[in-house]
Design goal:
The protein is of the alpha/beta class. It has eleven helices and 15 strands. A five-stranded mixed barrel has the order 1-2-3-5-4. A five-stranded parallel beta sheet has the order 7-6-10-11-12. The N terminus is likely disordered.
Length: 522
């Protein structure tokens, strides 16, 4: 039997043991359509034969026909896995979910009943590509076939995320993430094991930080691939190799799955911890650290393990299993060297600190002596006598201020009385009233003048309007007024004038006398 070829979706041991799972939760391949020769007799195309006699016809109702189609579909297809894009997602008040699964060429209606509690409903979103498992059935009331969904899985990166969550729940249930099993890191590590790619950016960042903060720290590198097929197994093998080197305590030749790697060191001391690290990347790039074999190797490690995979926002299974998770490779190197670095800083600053403490002690003693001198000065008898003299001066000053204040108050009272007397004198009151009368008279004259001026202006305006409406203005514009000479009656119609009547026509300047011969009324 040929060995199966690995693909980019081969997750290694992540799905190991799934062969024993019940058949209803395992993905299965969609069966190929049966050959034409293998079609059931019920749905095979009937041969062209003469129509049977009416008595031999089998007439089906719509319900019976739909029931037969349902039995045929459920019997021939049954449970299938289907992949496609979700559209027309509807959540009913009853708790059932209806949606359509489509691809470029076709679509199928799907229903997820509320009793399917094991389905991850958060995966159901419009526009999301999923794989669903269900039973082909027929909704008889509408006569259409549909897929009754019992399982939903995401595709692509969604599948990786789902596999991540599934493995995370499994390992958490086994206690691999328990806080009580986390081991503290040694404060002053002298030698550490490093599991990473020898050509990646992570090892350069780690070496740069260690060279700057603790150059004496020895590093034992167990090189491995950190990306691609088989990278997880290499990471796990490197962790076990470093543990074997630690247990043997010197120059060892570690064998793992038929391969030999030599770890050479100049000192026989053992390791203090293991750092598993790599740079950032996508979920697929970091997947080697999400494999179960790596998690088991970290859990079984005799040494504390620090996991620093990706960037600060990236979390892998190795981060949860490790004794300490660092956001980045540089942060992991800073955490490992923090004890030595802080101790070196403490020693470098010790001389200044001792000098500061000595100066502080001298300052404190000087302050205590000054306080004692001040207390002695306050208790001297001459100080008490001086206080009595100062009290006497204060009392004399207070007596002088009280006398001066009394005089000022009497002077103010006299001035107030004089002002009140001057206000009630008749001459002053009369003068004030006379001034008020003069002001009122002036105001009255001013108001009368304004009133007469307003009336004069109004009269002028009315006179102008009347003059514009007068007959003189009409005559000035070229019109004339005709009236009977004898009576002076103004003629407004031709019918009002009688023949042989003398008329007088008034113009702008002068008058005309005429005699009417004949009146014509239009």
């Amino acid at each position: 039997m040929a060995k199966p070829v690995k693909t980019q979706w081969d997750f290694g041991d992540l799905f190991a043991g799934q062969e024993n799972e019940p058949a209803e939760i395992r993905p299965v391949e969609r069966p190929a359509p049966p050959a034409e020769s293998a079609q059931p007799a019920e749905i095979a195309e009937p041969a062209r034969a003469p129509a049977p006699v009416r008595s031999s016809r089998k007439i089906l109702s719509v319900s019976e026909l739909t029931a037969q189609i349902r039995r045929l579909l459920e019997g021939s297809l049954g449970w299938v896995w289907v992949t496609g894009e979700i559209t027309n997602l509807k959540l009913q008040n009853s708790g059932h979910i209806y949606f359509t699964l489509k691809d470029a060429g076709a679509q199928v209606s799907c229903v997820l009943f509320r009793g399917e509690f094991q389905v991850n409903r958060s995966l159901l979103q419009d526009g999301k590509k999923v794989m669903v498992r269900g039973e082909i059935t027929v909704y008889e009331l509408k006569g259409q076939y549909q897929l009754r969904v019992v399982s939903v899985e995401a595709q692509g990166l969604g599948a990786l995320q789902e596999a991540f969550e599934r493995l995370k729940q499994k390992l958490s249930a086994e206690g691999l993430f328990a806080k009580e099993r986390k081991r503290p890191l040694p404060k002053y590590p002298q030698r550490i094991g490093l599991v990473t790619s020898p050509t990646g950016a992570a090892i350069r960042d780690v070496l740069h930080v260690i060279e700057r903060r603790n150059p004496s720290l020895q590093i034992i590198l167990a090189p491995c691939r950190v990306q691609g097929d088989g990278a997880g197994a290499e990471v796990a093998r490197a962790i076990r190799l470093l543990n074997e080197f630690h247990l043997r305590g010197g120059i060892q030749s570690a064998r793992s799955k038929g391969q030999t790697q030599d770890l050479i060191t100049s000192s026989p001391r053992c390791l203090d911890l293991i750092l598993v690290t790599r740079g950032g990347g996508s979920l697929e790039d970091l997947w080697a650290f999400n494999e179960e074999v790596v998690a088991r190797a970290i859990f079984e490690s005799q040494l504390p393990v620090v996991s620093a995979v990706g960037h600060e926002i990236d979390f892998t299974i190795s981060d949860f299993v490790a004794d300490l998770r660092a956001a980045t490779p540089s942060a992991a190197a800073e955490i490992i060297t923090e004890g030595v670095f802080s101790s070196c800083q403490f020693v470098a600053e010790a001389a200044d600190r001792i000098r500061q403490l000595a100066l502080q002690q001298l300052a404190d003693k000087r302050y205590v002596m000054e306080q004692a001198n001040q207390r002695l000065a306050r208790l001297h008898p001459r100080r008490k006598f001086n206080e009595w003299l100062q009290r006497l001066d204060d009392l004399q000053g207070s007596l002088s201020r009280c006398a001066r204040q009394g005089v000022r108050q009497q002077r103010v009272t006299w001035r107030n009385l004089a002002e009140r007397l001057s206000r009630v004198r008749p001459g002053i009151v009369l003068k004030q009233r006379r001034e008020l009368l003069r002001q009122e008279e002036q105001r009255l004259k001013e108001q009368a003048r304004h009133f007469v001026e307003r009336l004069r202006n109004r009269f002028s305006a009315l006179e102008s309007k009347l003059r514009l409406l007068g007959p003189e203005q009409v005559l000035a514009r070229g019109y004339s007024i005709t009236m009977e000479e004898s009576t002076g009656k103004v003629l407004r119609r031709a019918a009002d004038a009688k023949p042989d009547t003398r008329l007088r026509t008034k113009l702008k300047t002068g008058e005309l006398i005429s005699k009417l011969e004949k009146a014509q009324d239009p």
